[in-house]
Design goal:
Elements: E1 4-8, H1 16-24, E2 29-36, E3 43-51, H2 54-64, E4 68-69, E5 72-73, E6 75-78
Antiparallel strand pairs: 1-3, 1-6, 2-3, 4-5
Amino acid sequence: MGNKLYVGNLPYSFRDDDLHRAFSAHGSVTSAKVMMERDTGRSKGFGFVEMGSDAEAQAAISALHGQQQGGRALVVNEARPMEPRPPRSGGYGGGRNNY
Protein backbone atom coordinates (compact mmCIF):
# COMPACT_ATOMS: atom_id res chain seq x y z
CA MET A 1 0.00 0.00 0.00
CA GLY A 2 1.31 3.43 -0.87
CA ASN A 3 0.58 6.68 0.86
CA LYS A 4 -0.44 8.57 -2.31
CA LEU A 5 -4.18 8.60 -2.89
CA TYR A 6 -6.41 9.33 -5.87
CA VAL A 7 -9.54 11.29 -4.95
CA GLY A 8 -12.27 11.36 -7.57
CA ASN A 9 -15.79 12.73 -7.99
CA LEU A 10 -14.84 15.95 -6.20
CA PRO A 11 -17.26 18.87 -6.26
CA TYR A 12 -16.03 21.38 -8.84
CA SER A 13 -15.83 24.01 -6.11
CA PHE A 14 -13.16 22.00 -4.21
CA ARG A 15 -9.68 23.52 -4.03
CA ASP A 16 -6.37 22.34 -2.57
CA ASP A 17 -7.17 23.71 0.90
CA ASP A 18 -10.54 21.93 0.99
CA LEU A 19 -8.89 18.64 0.07
CA HIS A 20 -6.17 19.14 2.68
CA ARG A 21 -8.76 19.92 5.37
CA ALA A 22 -10.90 16.86 4.57
CA PHE A 23 -7.96 14.46 4.77
CA SER A 24 -6.08 16.02 7.71
CA ALA A 25 -8.75 14.67 10.07
CA HIS A 26 -7.35 11.20 9.31
CA GLY A 27 -3.61 11.84 9.60
CA SER A 28 -0.83 14.12 8.46
CA VAL A 29 -1.19 15.38 4.89
CA THR A 30 2.09 15.88 3.02
CA SER A 31 0.41 17.34 -0.08
CA ALA A 32 -3.07 17.86 -1.51
CA LYS A 33 -3.63 18.90 -5.12
CA VAL A 34 -6.87 19.34 -7.07
CA MET A 35 -6.22 19.01 -10.80
CA MET A 36 -7.34 22.07 -12.75
CA GLU A 37 -8.13 22.71 -16.43
CA ARG A 38 -5.26 24.65 -17.93
CA ASP A 39 -7.40 26.88 -20.15
CA THR A 40 -10.40 27.59 -17.93
CA GLY A 41 -8.97 27.26 -14.41
CA ARG A 42 -11.92 25.01 -13.51
CA SER A 43 -11.45 21.87 -11.42
CA LYS A 44 -11.30 18.58 -13.33
CA GLY A 45 -13.16 16.90 -10.45
CA PHE A 46 -10.25 14.82 -9.15
CA GLY A 47 -7.03 15.25 -7.25
CA PHE A 48 -4.26 13.57 -5.30
CA VAL A 49 -3.42 13.51 -1.61
CA GLU A 50 -0.19 12.27 -0.10
CA MET A 51 -0.49 11.12 3.50
CA GLY A 52 2.33 10.86 6.05
CA SER A 53 2.23 7.05 6.26
CA ASP A 54 0.60 4.00 4.70
CA ALA A 55 -1.51 3.50 7.85
CA GLU A 56 -2.85 7.06 7.63
CA ALA A 57 -3.60 6.59 3.93
CA GLN A 58 -5.56 3.42 4.70
CA ALA A 59 -7.48 5.21 7.47
CA ALA A 60 -8.37 8.03 5.06
CA ILE A 61 -9.59 5.56 2.41
CA SER A 62 -11.75 3.74 4.97
CA ALA A 63 -13.21 6.97 6.34
CA LEU A 64 -13.73 9.00 3.16
CA HIS A 65 -14.48 6.59 0.29
CA GLY A 66 -18.18 6.98 -0.51
CA GLN A 67 -18.64 9.99 1.80
CA GLN A 68 -20.79 12.85 0.50
CA GLN A 69 -19.03 16.14 -0.23
CA GLY A 70 -21.06 18.83 -1.95
CA GLY A 71 -23.71 16.30 -2.97
CA ARG A 72 -21.17 13.91 -4.54
CA ALA A 73 -19.90 10.57 -3.23
CA LEU A 74 -16.09 10.69 -3.09
CA VAL A 75 -14.00 7.98 -4.69
CA VAL A 76 -10.81 7.45 -2.68
CA ASN A 77 -8.26 4.77 -3.45
CA GLU A 78 -4.53 4.21 -3.81
CA ALA A 79 -3.08 6.18 -6.70
CA ARG A 80 -1.65 4.11 -9.54
CA PRO A 81 1.36 5.19 -11.59
CA MET A 82 0.44 7.16 -14.69
CA GLU A 83 0.30 4.91 -17.75
CA PRO A 84 2.38 6.00 -20.74
CA ARG A 85 0.38 7.66 -23.48
CA PRO A 86 0.94 7.05 -27.18
CA PRO A 87 2.78 9.88 -28.94
CA ARG A 88 0.54 12.63 -30.28
CA SER A 89 0.29 13.07 -34.02
CA GLY A 90 -0.36 16.28 -35.89
CA GLY A 91 -4.10 15.59 -35.89
CA TYR A 92 -4.43 14.66 -39.54
CA GLY A 93 -2.53 11.39 -39.71
CA GLY A 94 0.96 12.72 -39.24
CA GLY A 95 2.47 11.88 -42.62
CA ARG A 96 2.97 13.92 -45.76
CA ASN A 97 1.23 11.46 -48.06
CA ASN A 98 -1.73 10.51 -45.86
CA TYR A 99 -4.43 12.53 -47.60
